[in-house]
Specification:
182 residues, 9 helices, mainly alpha, 0% strand
C-alpha cells in the first residue's frame, strides 16, 4: 500500500478509519517514523472531539486503530513497546474523558490494566530487588525498570473504573515500587 502514509494531516477521523481498515494495511511497509506519524495523526483526530460517537462508530474506530498498530508492529517490530504504549495512553485518555462503554473494546479499562500487567518485563519481586539499586545496573536492566514506570502510568488514572478488578491488587503492588524506579 504505497500511499497509506500520504496526506495523513488532511484526513478527518472517518478518513483515518477508512484508510486503516483497508485490507492493504496488513502488508504495508514503512519505517518507524511513518508509522509514528500515522498513529499521532489518527490519535489527534480522535482526541479533537471524542464525545458524541455512537457505539457502532466507536467500534469502527477501535478496529481501525488496532489495525494501524498491528500494521506498524508487523512492519517495524515492537520498537520497545512503542505501539503498546501508544495504545494504552490513548485508551486511558479516552476513558478519562468519555468513560467505559460495554461492547466497545477501545473503551474498556480492564484491557488497559490487563495489557499493562502482562507486558511487565520483570516480576514484582525482581523489580523490588533491582529498583533501589538501579544506578548500579546495566542499561538493559535500567530500561526494564523504566518500562515498568511507563506501563503503570496509563493505568493509574483509571483507578475509579478498576478498583473491583481481580488484578487490581497486583497493580497496587507495582505502584508501591514507583518511588524507587528510575
Amino acid at each position: 500500500m504505497t500511499g497509506c502514509f500520504d496526506g495523513l494531516d488532511r484526513l478527518d477521523l472517518d478518513g483515518h478509519v477508512r484508510r486503516w481498515s483497508a485490507p492493504q494495511v496488513g502488508p504495508a511497509g514503512g519505517d518507524p517514523s511513518q508509522w509514528i506519524a500515522a498513529a499521532q495523526q489518527f490519535a489527534a483526530r480522535l482526541q479533537d472531539d471524542p464525545t458524541g460517537l455512537s457505539d457502532e462508530r466507536w467500534r469502527a474506530v477501535g478496529q481501525a486503530w488496532m489495525a494501524l498498530l498491528a500494521g506498524a508492529e508487523r512492519a517495524t517490530g515492537p520498537q520497545r513497546n512503542e505501539w503498546l504504549l501508544r495504545d494504552l495512553r490513548l485508551r486511558s485518555w479516552l476513558l478519562e474523558r468519555v468513560g467505559p462503554r460495554a461492547g466497545v473494546a477501545l473503551l474498556d479499562p480492564e484491557a488497559v490494566l490487563e495489557r499493562a500487567l502482562t507486558a511487565m518485563p520483570l516480576s514484582p519481586r525482581e523489580a523490588a530487588w533491582s529498583a533501589p539499586h538501579w544506578r548500579e545496573l546495566d542499561r538493559e536492566q535500567i530500561m526494564a525498570l523504566r518500562m515498568i514506570r511507563r506501563l503503570l502510568a496509563p493505568v493509574r488514572p483509571l483507578a475509579p473504573f478498576l478498583a473491583d478488578h481481580p488484578r487490581w491488587d497486583e497493580f497496587q503492588e507495582w505502584e508501591r515500587l514507583v518511588g524507587d524506579l528510575p
